[in-house]
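Write out this protein's structure.
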Amino acid sequence: MAQVLFDAVPSLDLADFTSGDAEKKKKFVEKLGEAYNNIGFVSIKNHGLTDELQQKLYSIIKKFFDEPDAIKQKYERPELAGQRGYISKGKEHAKGRSTGDLKEFYHIGQEVTDNDPIKEEYPDNIWPEEIPEFEGIALAAYRTIENAGRAMLRAIALYLELDEDYFESRVKNGNSILRPIHYFPIENPDAIPADAVRAAEHGDINLITLLMGASADGLQVLRRDGKWIPITALPEQLVVNVGDMLARLTNDKLKSTIHRVVNPPRELMHTSRYSIPFFMHPRSDMDLTCLESCVDSEHPKKYDDMTAGAFLHQRLAEIGLKK
């Protein structure tokens, strides 16, 4: 496939894939493949997440992050390695760095309701008692975005010439995380480390990430020619990018592109930024061994065989959430 340097993230309509029109479905898969081969990001509309639900979700997370630190820290459980509840300021850093990112966040995980034994692997979700509506709104958003992610994975499977349902059993009750993030205000920029940023350059751990529009600019993606280009999700879109697990599975045929959230201009450092990514993970026993169809003499196998669970634990240690 031809190498393309995109100046913006390609926009696609998920309805083209789900409507039942075979020709539109085929074109969606082709365009998705081209984008994921080159830049690793697309924007999609008609994903099922309503503007009303997004607004409710942003409202409750702003309410939570406005609470005093003493209240928020009631919901922090260091023994869970950041997998549920609140994670306080500066705890997470990018792989290869030691300076903490200028953010705090909250993790909502999978709720297993069908007697699947995998439930034993997951800690219970933690809900702030100060905001009783938090649970219902967060879980509604979680399920909606997870469904959009499953549709995207079906398209990815077709692009890879796998069975359309290849990922279905592998992500059923998968270890996915909804992460509301608060990039908190910095009243005195001189008081933070010189290299501290909202989110240092990194690749995501998971299969794919689905991100609803953030409350301010700052997200950038690194093109293969070394140029950083800005990403802005329109209100009706989700940005969907390839994670490291999918890159590993496809021997880097699909690109897990490095991205970052830069600090605003100094005069705006006192402002907040909110963002809500959904990190779509498979079940821990998914085999991430490179697909045979993605390995040949021109593309030798890059990665050791590993399960998704082992890869996640390795990466959590690398980013400072697990000792």
